[in-house]
TrEMBL record:
Positions bound to a divalent metal cation: D24, E25, D117
Cofactors that this protein relies on: Mg(2+); Mn(2+)
Reaction(s) catalysed (UniProt annotation): Endonucleolytic cleavage to 5'-phosphomonoester
Pfam families: RNase_HII
Record GO cellular component, one term: cytoplasm
Enzyme Commission number(s): 3.1.26.4
Name of this chain's protein: Ribonuclease HII
Species annotation: Candidatus Curtissbacteria bacterium RIFCSPHIGHO2_01_FULL_41_13
Length: 204
């Protein structure tokens, strides 16, 4: 496991950026359900929680523990959910950009600098930003955002599995696992599947 650090945040704090936000998304590659983005601003010189890393490297139990610690420590946390209807309307690329713009716009207090995992936020010049490849293993703020977003979305998909019990969403969270493929072939698509994705081969 690669643990995230504060090197990027510290460099920005030293330059006078008191409020540095880390931003990440979860669910971009999923075949069903919403896209969820989160943003986290930590106080200057805070102590990184033990085992803080990219959400994909952390167990469900650890993610829950870390999410609770992040909520207690952060200056501000934002979560934005882009529903499947919007994803199907505009596509996942524009939906991702929309989520990130909403995250930054709704922060209170406002960040003076944003660190984003992989993506540059388009059409948004009010706040300085830096897109970082594999940012969720390089920035504690981005890693924290990935944890918060992952816990939120997983809980949401588990709840949706009660409404759509034939698809096993509580197990695969909408991603293209063998189980998910089998349930689509058997039952067809449901209302929370992303019809904008080319998934027709599953029901042909």
């Amino acid at each position: 496991m690669i643990l995230a650090d504060l090197d990027l945040e510290k460099a920005l704090w030293e330059k006078g950026h008191k409020l540095v936000a880390g931003i990440d998304e979860v669910g971009r590659g999923s075949w069903a359900g919403p896209l969820v983005a989160a943003g986290v601003i930590f106080p200057k010189n805070f102590t990184i929680p033990a085992k803080l890393a990219d959400s994909k490297q952390v167990s469900k139990k650890e993610r829950k523990r870390l999410a609770a610690l992040i909520r207690k420590t952060a200056v501000s946390i934002n979560i934005v959910e882009i529903p499947v209807e919007k994803i199907n309307e505009v596509g996942i690329g524009k939906a991702t950009q929309l989520a990130f713009r909403k995250i930054v716009a709704s922060f209170n207090p406002k960040p003076t600098y944003c660190l984003i995992d992989a993506f540059h936020i388009k059409y948004f010049s009010k706040t300085k930003q830096l897109a970082i490849k594999h940012g969720d293993i390089k920035s504690a703020s981005i890693a924290a955002a990935s944890i918060v977003a992952k816990v939120y979305r997983d809980d949401l998909m588990e709840a949706l599995s009660q409404k759509y019990p034939r698809y096993g969403f509580e197990k695969h969270k909408g991603y293209g696992t063998t189980l998910h493929q089998k349930t689509i072939k058997k039952n067809g698509f449901c209302k929370i599947h992303r019809t904008s994705y080319n998934l027709s081969f599953l029901v042909s």
